[in-house]
Write a structure and sequence with these properties.
The protein is α/β, with parallel strands linked by helices. It is built from two helices and 23 strands. The strands form four sheets. The protein has a nine-stranded mixed sheet. The chain has a six-stranded parallel sheet with strand order 2-5-8-11-16-19. The chain has a six-stranded parallel sheet with strand order 4-7-10-13-18-21, with no helix packed on it. The chain is globular, with a radius of gyration of 18 Å.
């Protein structure tokens, strides 16, 4: 009997046929995901997107995902403006990224079913730098740049951009420690290994 709880992932060749803007090598996305606007999504290589993730991209924006990126299950990426996840970044379970928000003041109307002229929607891109990791259940608001090397603790609300190589946590998130740069040595080691592998493959 086949395992009824197993999840099927589509690979790079299958994903290219679906109409993504770009798909590199060793990319896998779970069938249980909801994706709107595939033609506005660019995927580099060595990426995995786990089940029950929702990705919605408007026709005025795009999503750019770099190399060696993992998006865990149950994440929500709402790209009314651009979202960029740089190399070696990752989202733990249930992370939400928003690039637009309604005006909550009561001065205007809200929700996507109301015509634009009656609303005051704020839109701004979100950028995650290299080696950024975001903990489970965290929320990233429009206009935030989480710069290289930062880690964000679980259940954090990130409403302002960070400075590089910090450990952030809380609601709202604040810098609580310096993050080690030791992982850059491992990145250099991995890059060297990958270059060596390419040379072997060519020979």
């Amino acid at each position: 009997m086949n395992n009824p709880f197993s999840t099927t992932y589509l690979g790079s060749s299958q994903l290219r046929e679906l109409g993504f803007a770009e798909v590199g090598e060793n990319v896998s996305i779970a069938l249980g995901c909801t994706i709107v606007g595939m033609h506005r999504i660019r995927l580099a290589s060595n990426i995995r997107i786990d089940p029950n993730t929702t990705i919605i991209v408007s026709d005025e924006s795009e999503i750019l995902i770099g190399n060696f990126v993992h998006i865990s299950g149950g994440c929500h990426l709402a790209a009314a403006d651009t979202i960029e996840l740089s190399d070696y970044s990752g989202l733990s379970q249930g992370v939400s990224i928003y690039t637009a928000t309604d005006d909550y003041s009561g001065e205007t109307m809200t929700n996507p079913m109301v015509p634009a002229e009656y609303k005051n929607v704020y839109k701004s891109p979100v950028h995650l730098g290299k080696h950024v990791i975001v903990g489970s259940g965290s929320i990233i608001l429009p206009g935030v740049s989480i710069l290289d090397g930062c880690s964000v603790g679980a259940l954090s609300l990130v409403r302002k951009s960070t400075t590089p190589w910090g450990v952030y946590a809380g609601s709202p998130a604040r810098r609580i420690a310096e993050r080690s740069r030791e992982l850059l040595k491992l990145e250099a080691e991995l890059d060297y290994h990958l270059k060596e592998q390419k040379i072997v493959d060519i020979i």
